[in-house]
Structures are given as structure tokens and as C-alpha cells.
Amino acid sequence: MSEKAKLVKALKQKGIPIPKDPKVAELRHRNEHWLTGVGWLLRLAKPSSRKPQSPATLLPDKNTYWLPDSRMAHDIVKTKLVFVMGRSALPPNGTNIIDVPKDYNNRWPVKQPIGEEE
Predict the structure, then answer these.
(1) Average pLDDT value over all residues in the chain
(2) Which residue from 16, 61, 62, 116 has the fewest beta carbons nearer than 10 Å?
(3) What integer pLDDT is reported at residue 28 of this predicted model?
């Protein structure tokens, strides 16, 4: 089985939509970052400049954004700078889409709880 077929199978098991004419890198990215296929509809409630080191800075203005269900979306919701407007498998028409940046894990690494070693 090719890598592409394995990735498609893994994404389908998670309920993540497969793009038209997918490239292996695109499938790999979704498999690595997306948790499920049901994304988040968010809108800034407060300026992201209140927490300049947070991933909420990825939302440039108060428009409505669809983000895939990912650590990024969860991190942004935890900032309490956004309104969660709902969850949706597909982005509604007119909604801006923000995918997980390729360098997300480097820019906002997972913090180790105090007392835990790697």
C-alpha cells in the first residue's frame, strides 16, 4: 500500500475530509495536525494583541474564521480572546479558513507540566 493510500485511510478513520487531488504533503500535514473532521467557527472577542505570544495572533481581525479541529484551535480557544460560534465539518460560505501553519509546533511547542521529564 502506498503512503498516499495509508494517509487517506488514516484520515478517513478520523473523519477528516480528503481534499480534491490531494498531494502526499497535504495529507501528511492533515494527519499530523488535525484531530477530527469537525472544525471550529471562531471570532475575536478581544484584540489578540492582549496576548501577543499566543496563537490567537493568527486571527488578524474580527471576521469569522473556520479552523480545523487541532491543537492550534484548542490553544486559541484557551486564550479566552475568542467567541466560539460553533462547530462545523465544512466551513460555511463566506467564512475565512485558517489551517494549521507548518511551523506551528515550533512556534508554540507543547509545554511540559512541571515535574515531568521527557
Answers:
(1) 91
(2) 116
(3) 95
Instruction: Assess whether 58 and 93 both reside in one domain.
Output: yes
Q: Using the structure block, give the residue that is written with the C-alpha cell 493510500.
A: 5
- Whether residue 75 sits in one domain with residue 25: no
Q: Could you tell me the three cell numbers for 94?
A: 463566506
Answer positive or negative: Cα dihedral of 13, 19, 23, 29: negative
* Cα distances (angstroms) measured from residue 70 to each of 81, 89, 94, 117, 118: 17, 13, 21, 24, 22
Instruction: Count CB atoms within 10 A of the CB of residue 27.
Output: 21
Beta strand ranges found along the chain (DSSP E): 39-44, 64-67, 82-88, 96-97
Same domain, 47 and 71: yes
Give the pLDDT band (50/70/90) at residue 1.
confident
Mean pLDDT throughout 19-37? 93
Q: What is the pLDDT of residue 118?
A: 46
Question: Domain span at residue 92?
Answer: 37-118
